[in-house]
Every structure is written in structure tokens, then in C-alpha cells.
Specification:
Pfam families: Com_YlbF (PF06133). This is RicAFT regulatory complex protein RicA family protein. InterPro entries: Bact_com_dev_regulator, Biofilm_formation_YmcA, Com_YlbF, YheA/YmcA-like_dom_sf. The chain has 121 residues and is mainly α. It has a single domain, classed as YheA-like fold (Up-down Bundle).
Length: 121
């Protein structure tokens, strides 16, 4: 084991290299492809826009104490969200998002453990 001290610049350069390597993994590539499909899908974009509209409306209704209208609005959001979630490309995107998140959490855990182990020496 060498006792080399890395400069901040060297650490950042290594981190950038690791980030580049991670972005080339199959999980991230699949995520990027799924994201592109989502962006290109007009139905998905329409539903997302509608959901955002109703969410803003819900915030206003809640703020002004319009309880009944708020609950009706939330029901519309739930219906639109269910419709969105039923679209296969959305399911694919959510799964790829989960896979990438799990992968990044694993990488973070490995780095944290390595740092902790180095501090114990």
C-alpha cells in the first residue's frame, strides 16, 4: 500500500473519470434511451402537462380553503397519473430510473465503506 496524498485537483479528475465510466454503463444507457422515448411521446407529454396544471390548481384551492374542489381536483390528478403510469414507455422509464438509482446507491456505499476503512487504518 502506498501512502500517496492526492491533491483536490487529482481527486476531482478521478471522480470525473469515474462519472464518465458510470455514464457508459448499460443501466445509464438504458435510462437515457427510456428518457428520450418519454420526451418524444406526445401522449406522455400531454398527460404530464395536465398533471402539472391540476397540481398548481390544487395548491391554489388548498390555499384558499376550497376543500371540496381540492378533493375533486386531486381525484382528477390521480386518474391522470394512473393513465400515465399505465403507458409501457413510462413503466420502462420508471424501472430504468430505479435501476440507475440502485446502482448509484451501491457506488456511493462502496466509496463510503472504502473511505471509512481507510480512516480506520
Amino acid at each position: 500500500m502506498t501512502d500517496h496524498q492526492y491533491s483536490k485537483k487529482e481527486i476531482i479528475a478521478k471522480a470525473e473519470k469515474i462519472a464518465e465510466q458510470i455514464s457508459e454503463t448499460s443501466q445509464v444507457r438504458f435510462y437515457k434511451q427510456a428518457e428520450a422515448k418519454i420526451s418524444a411521446n406526445k401522449k406522455v407529454q400531454r398527460l404530464v402537462d395536465e398533471i402539472k396544471h391540476y397540481q398548481k390548481e390544487s395548491v391554489n384551492l388548498q390555499h384558499f380553503g376550497k376543500t371540496e374542489a381540492y378533493h375533486q381536483n386531486e381525484a382528477v390528478i390521480d386518474r391522470l397519473q394512473a393513465e400515465l403510469d399505465a403507458i409501457p414507455v413510462v413503466q420502462e422509464f420508471k424501472q430504468s430510473q430505479s435501476d440507475v438509482n440502485d446502482f448509484l446507491q451501491l457506488m456511493t456505499k462502496i466509496v463510503s465503506q472504502h473511505v471509512a476503512n481507510e480512516n480506520d487504518r
